[in-house]
Structures are given as C-alpha cells and as structure tokens.
Amino acid sequence: MTAFFIDIDGVLRRGDRAIAGAPEAIRLLRASHPCLLVTNATRLSADEIFADLVKMGCSISREEVFTPIDATVSYIKKRNPAAKCHLIMEGKVRADFVNAGLILTDETPDFVVLGLDTKLDYTGLDRAFRNLKGGAALIAANATRFYPLEDGLHLGVGPFAKALESASGQEAVVIGKPNSEFFRAALERLGSKREETVMVGDDPFDDIQGARDFGLRTIFIEGTSANEDLEKNSIQPDFILTGIAEIARILERLK
After folding, report:
1. Can you tell me the distance from the alpha carbon of 107 to that of 212, in angstroms, rounded to the nearest whole number?
2. Is the pTM of this model over 0.85?
C-alpha cells in the first residue's frame, strides 16, 4: 500500500491559513493510505503544529505530525538513552527532549543540539563552542538558511551551525530534510517501506531531491520561485501538481 509523507508549510498551509482543498485532500488520503505530515520547522513543537492543523480543518492524529525535533530525539536516544543535551532552541520543543528521558544541561553535555533560538547571543554561542571543544557532539535539527514569515525572511538555523562548525572544527550532524536521517526516522514512525512511500512537497531540494536521493517517489507542488529552482537544477519529480487538492486524480497511478 502506498504511504505518503506530506510537507506542511507551502503544501497544507501558508502562515496560519489552510491552502484551499488541503483539509479535504488529507481526509481523502487518510481514508486508505498511511500518512505522515512532515516539516523542517523547529520553532514550534509537534503538539503545537498538530493543534494548528486541527484548527485549520485537518482531521489528523498527533502521531501523524513529524518534525526535525522528533527525528533528533530518535537519533540521540539510539546512541544514548539518557544523554545529556545542551539545547539551543526555544519554546515548547524543549519539553520533547525531557519527555523522551533526555537530560537538559549546559554542563559537560554529550550533545550540543542546535534549533531555532531567536534570542541567541554571543554568550550562548560561546557556551556551545566551549562544550563542543570539551567533547560534545554537534547536532543541527535542520540547516535551513532562512525561513519565511508574514513580514518576510528571517535567519534560520544553518548559519549558526556553520559558525559553530568553523569555530570548533567539528562537522555537525544535520537531521532535518533533505538528510537521510530525517527520512529514515519518518519511515520508522510511519512503519512504511521506502519503495512504497511518496514524498509530497514544494521545496525542490529539501523535499524532492532529498526524497529522491533516499529512494522515495516524489510529487512536487508548484510554486513560482520553486518552479525556477526545479527547472534550473534539472530536478525530476515523478509528478507535478498545482496543489495537493489535485492528488485524487493521480492516486491510481501511484499503486
């Protein structure tokens, strides 16, 4: 049976509004296919994203939302179930580490975990640097250069990861899309097989090329600038749709 990874921002919603036809498309897919709604965002916890999607009319369960924080926790737990983590991130996402049994501390941690922290300053970066030089491993929940909000683009996690890599001499383990660790953890969550899973996304690199490199089939959801990137870099999705509302017409071809 075909399973689906469905990107959230740009495919199901823009800002705090559902994209036309998205809730209905999710309802259709979930009726007969395993689905996981995925994102590269680290600003909000999976619980918060789930609540927002439900408000937008998406009939889903909490377990069907998967974030880079979920994948990061999975990665760390496999290596040390009681690891000490120095987190550089804000908000409720920190609770996901605590709930998984990980220890939050900036004293001799096993891992420095980098997410989005809009209040990060020199002191915070310096503390992370010192812990990395003290033997901690660097993990970046994603490596996005920037992210969009209603007032425009904002600096993402990637530049801070690069700064810490440069200073410490250590290469970060990057978890979020387009990295294989994210897709591998998502497959484990959904319980699907690689050859039976389709990635639906609007980012040519993080969604489409990343999924293709991992061995998934892909559906590209068109967007103006993204279309240019797709063509310029000769990225070839299996299907191209103008919106997820169109997915019903190709379901038979995905079996």
Report:
1. 40
2. yes
